[in-house]
Design goal:
InterPro entries: Virul_fac_BrkB. Keywords: Cell membrane, Membrane, Transmembrane, Transmembrane helix. It is a multi-pass membrane protein. It holds the Pfam family Virul_fac_BrkB. The chain is mainly α and 354 residues long. It has one domain. 81% of the residues lie in helices and 0% in strands. It is built from twelve helices and no strands.
């Protein structure tokens, strides 16, 4: 291939990329408009329809099925995560920090059960256990996604003849399960590991700043012991990032919900919103989880009433609430989408027929 031909192909490729970027940029203002227009339809009528549809579609029963499958998948997933971390001595502190930050959301009784599994796994390290538990957790977690897909088909009122086959559903469920796990890994990395990265970057920036402003006759001393303690960036950036990591984690949870809303149902209306309901579901999940944690801590005596199985009952209740919130977010999207289509159809009618 000659140089002229290579240059011509490169130019054609750049033109194609430019056209795609131009099309995407044109859609951004429209997407922002649709995003904020969603909240104009959140009113008492919409909320009433959401409550009625939640009861008619039996979302409470479907979320109970999701919670049961989540319980089956949770402990193999914990085994695989802890087995992977236990194989590396450098990640032991990360595991302890995960337990500390998990206490913000998870009830105390659930923390005790998880901590017991963690301590046992740290004693016995096994690569075979990691591989086996990872595969089992993927398969079982695909069952959780499968239950969510069944619930989403109910929410979207998909006719029986439009439903996917079993193997199509299973493959999509496995793909969504893997995507969910990857997003959770990214969220955990941002929440648990990013503090160290941000502090290192702030320190490096402060070193460059102090060395750059150092007098020439003291440049050697600045290189050996740069006065980074007085740097404003080192004082403010890590603390600011600690305040931002939970909103970022909620954003990743909302992204995960949006992916499930998009690819979960066998059929959906193209104009049905995705992101706004996912954001509402993520925020509602965080609020309700914290309220439930406070309730269990101060008012719930599950261990006294139920004995040793009290922690598992609390875990089931928490997973049930999380599942129900996710399904309610999907129902809000569908209800608001129907209201948007009704408004659009009424606007297209002649004024005499409205």
């Amino acid at each position: 291939m000659s140089l002229e031909q290579a240059a011509e192909k490169t130019a054609d490729a750049l033109i194609v990329v430019y056209r795609h970027l131009k099309a995407i940029l044109r859609k951004i203002p429209k997407g922002i408009f649709h995003f904020f227009r969603f909240f104009l339809y959140i009113n008492w009528t919409t909320l009433k329809e959401v409550v009625i549809c939640t009861a008619e579609q039996r979302l409470n029963g479907l979320s109970a099925e999701m919670a049961y499958n989540s319980t089956l998948a949770l402990f193999p997933a914990l085994l695989s995560i802890i087995a992977a971390i236990s194989l590396s001595d450098s990640l032991q502190n990360t595991l302890q920090e995960m337990g500390t930050l998990l206490a913000v959301v998870v009830p105390q009784e659930v923390q005790v059960q998880i901590s017991t599994v963690w301590e046992r796994m740290l004693i016995t390290r096994s690569e075979e256990l990691f591989s086996f538990s990872f595969l089992v957790s993927i398969w079982l977690f695909s069952g959780v996604i499968g239950s969510a897909m069944v619930a989403l088909n109910h929410i979207h009122r998909v006719p029986r003849e439009r439903l996917r086959s079993f193997w199509e559903d299973k493959l999509i469920a496995i793909a969504l399960a893997i995507g969910t796990i990857l997003l959770l890994i990214v969220a955990c990395g941002l929440v648990f590991i990013s503090d160290v990265v941000v502090e290192i970057l702030a320190r490096k920036s402060c070193i460059l700043e102090t060395v750059g402003t150092c007098p020439l006759d003291q440049i050697k001393d600045c290189l050996e012991q740069p006065p980074v303690q007085q740097c404003l960036l080192l004082k403010t950036l890590p603390s600011t990032w600690k305040q931002l990591r939970w909103p970022i984690a909620l954003g990743i949870v909302a992204t995960n919900f949006a992916l499930i809303y998009r690819f979960g149902p066998s059929q959906r209306q193209p104009e049905t919103p995705l992101v706004p309901g996912a954001i509402l579901a993520a925020i509602l999940w965080a609020v309700i989880s914290n309220l439930f944690r406070l309730y269990v801590t101060h008012f719930g005596n599950y261990n006294i009433t139920y004995g040793a199985i009290g922690a598992f009952i609390i875990l089931l209740l928490w997973l049930y609430i999380a599942s129900l919130v996710m399904l309610i977010g999907a129902q809000v999207n569908v209800t608001v989408g129907e209201a948007m289509r009704r408004r659009k159809s009424q606007a297209s009618l002649p004024s005499s027929l409205r």
